[in-house]
């Protein structure tokens, strides 16, 4: 009898795990036309006791990109779109010309929007949980990402709540998202930036 109960438990548990698929996650995260809220980013560097912390606001607009507005410790506005990363200089958007930028863009937009197809090109993906509480673990599979990360862990519910980037040399970045609002009017600055 005990053997049958264990087998039944294992079957029910595995059915629960597979009920929430990567496709279901994509559907969940790509449902809103826009998501905006606050972020806190903590960068843990080897040799430093306290993390380097920054915070601000973000706006993610479906199929258009991300506006990342750091407020503390200093003001900085970044725009991430499929065409590149730009920084606001107070008058116009200045495009960054850094090498390897296309990989960074695809990674960042993929992490926030749940684009598992783009992420699967460079990582092995493991999804656990349900629609109400899930975790996606990314283990690098491409040579480039293996040189940078050991793994990336994304936690979420209806949207992404937390991203942890674990780097090869031992540094770690933790990004938390709070006070998220979906499908609400966005600022005129964000509208112009993400046209």
UniProtKB/TrEMBL annotation:
Which Pfam families does the UniProt entry name for this protein?
LolA (PF03548)
Q: Which UniProt keywords apply?
A: Lipoprotein, Protein transport, Signal, Transport
Record-linked Gene3D superfamilies? Lipoprotein localisation LolA/LolB/LppX
Q: Tell me which positions the record assigns to the signal sequence.
A: 1-19
Protein name per its UniProtKB record: Outer membrane lipoprotein carrier protein LolA
- The domain of life is Bacteria
- Subunit (UniProt): Monomer.
Specify whether Nucleus is a keyword of the entry.
Answer: no
InterPro entries, A to Z: LolA/LolB/LppX, OM_lipoprot_carrier_LolA-like
Keyword set includes Transport: yes
């Amino acid at each position: 009898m005990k053997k049958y109960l264990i087998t039944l438990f294992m079957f029910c548990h595995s059915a629960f795990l597979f009920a929430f698929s990567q496709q279901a996650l994509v559907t969940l995260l790509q449902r809103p036309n826009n998501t905006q809220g606050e972020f806190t980013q903590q960068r843990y560097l080897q040799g430093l006791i306290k993390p380097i912390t920054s915070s601000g606001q973000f706006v993610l607009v479906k199929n258009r990109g991300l506006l990342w507005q750091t407020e503390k410790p200093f003001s900085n506005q970044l725009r991430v779109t499929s065409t590149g990363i730009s920084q606001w200089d107070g008058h116009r958007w200045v495009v960054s010309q850094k090498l390897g930028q296309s990989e960074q863009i695809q990674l960042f937009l993929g992490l926030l929007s749940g684009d598992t197809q783009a992420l699967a090109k460079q990582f092995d993906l493991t999804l656990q949980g349900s629609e109400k509480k899930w975790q996606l673990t990314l283990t690098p599979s491409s040579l480039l990402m293996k040189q940078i990360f050991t793994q990336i862990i994304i936690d979420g519910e209806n949207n992404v709540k937390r991203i942890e980037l674990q780097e090869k040399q031992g540094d770690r970045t933790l990004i938390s998202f709070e006070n998220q609002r979906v499908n609400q009017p966005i600022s005129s600055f964000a509208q112009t930036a993400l046209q």
